[in-house]
Amino acid sequence: MQNKSTKSTHNSKTSAKKAISSSRKNIQATSDQSAKKTTVSDTQKPASSSHVDLSWKRYLLPSIHPEGLKILGFMFGIILVFGLLVPWIWFIGAPLLIFTFYFFRNPERVTPKGDNLIIAPADGIVSDIKAVVPPKELELGSEPLTRISIFMSVFSVHVNRAPVSGTVSALNYRPGKFVSVADKDSEDNERQEICITMDNGTKIGFIQIAGLVARRIYCPLHVGEKLKAGEVFGMIRFGSRLDVFLPKGVEPKVMLGQVSVAGETVLAEFNGK
């Protein structure tokens, strides 16, 4: 009886040891699997993530508007020919090429998301905010609307961007004079009037105005063309102004003297229909 009892006790201890050992192995295996999963999830990047360019090229070597490439190529050809004949021409030509590259730069912009946002279409300084009757060609009605004017100096980025997403519903080019647009209504200046109708029916009118130095408004848009907010749609060469008409009842979110960044600065926010 004693031997049987001893054997039974021994067998019980052995079974207990096996059970404990098996349990430890299971726990270890589970821990290893969890660690592997954690490692994989920690190292994998979300599919939606994108690389943000923080290199010096973004600041010193931005892309160039296609209109600028044509002029740069033409200038380089002339400077090259005359430079071979008169070497000192390069001392004048090189700075001109650098300035032209700088003027036609088209830096990367990140446009805020929001269907009810009106984004700045131009770089520059907010020079005027007041209520005026918009041109009838914009089809915005006959009542005064808040107009935000952005003045662009020769040192500003002159690439213009759409203030909202929608369809071009009206275009009107008006030839005129080339006088200062810094502090005047500039009714006599050359201009390109544009209206975009958003998907909710809201109309946003804006005007490219040639200034004292500017000699050409570039706007290849056509009625019916669709644009996204922040999308490049044209430019004005060498100093100018851009006006934006806000819908009735919408208050501006910018102030006089504020620096505007095309495609990024929020001019106003309105309640969609």
A few lines on this structure:
The chain has 273 residues and is an alpha+beta fold. It has helices at residues 2-43, 57-60, 66-85, 89-103; strands at 63-64, 105-106, 117-119, 124-132, 145-152, 159-161, 166-174, 191-197, 203-210, 217-218, 226-227, 232-236, 240-245, 259-260, 266-269.
Give structural notes.
By secondary structure, this protein is an alpha+beta fold. It folds into three domains: 36 residues; 45 residues; 158 residues, Glucose Permease (Domain IIA), CATH 2.70.70. The chain has four helices and 15 strands. The strands form four sheets. Strands 11-7-8-9-13-5-4-14 form an eight-stranded antiparallel β-sheet, with no helix packed on it. Helix 3 packs antiparallel against helix 4. The chain is globular and about 60 Å long. The N terminus is likely disordered.
Please name the defining characteristics of this protein.
3-stranded antiparallel beta sheet; single chain; 273 residues; Glucose Permease (Domain IIA); 4 helices; globular; 8-stranded antiparallel beta sheet; alpha+beta; disordered N terminus
Strand and helix layout:
Elements: H1 2-43, H2 57-60, E1 63-64, H3 66-85, H4 89-103, E2 105-106, E3 117-119, E4 124-132, E5 145-152, E6 159-161, E7 166-174, E8 191-197, E9 203-210, E10 217-218, E11 226-227, E12 232-236, E13 240-245, E14 259-260, E15 266-269
Antiparallel strand pairs: 1-2, 3-15, 4-5, 4-14, 5-13, 6-12, 7-8, 7-11, 8-9, 9-13, 10-12
Helix pairs in contact: 3-4
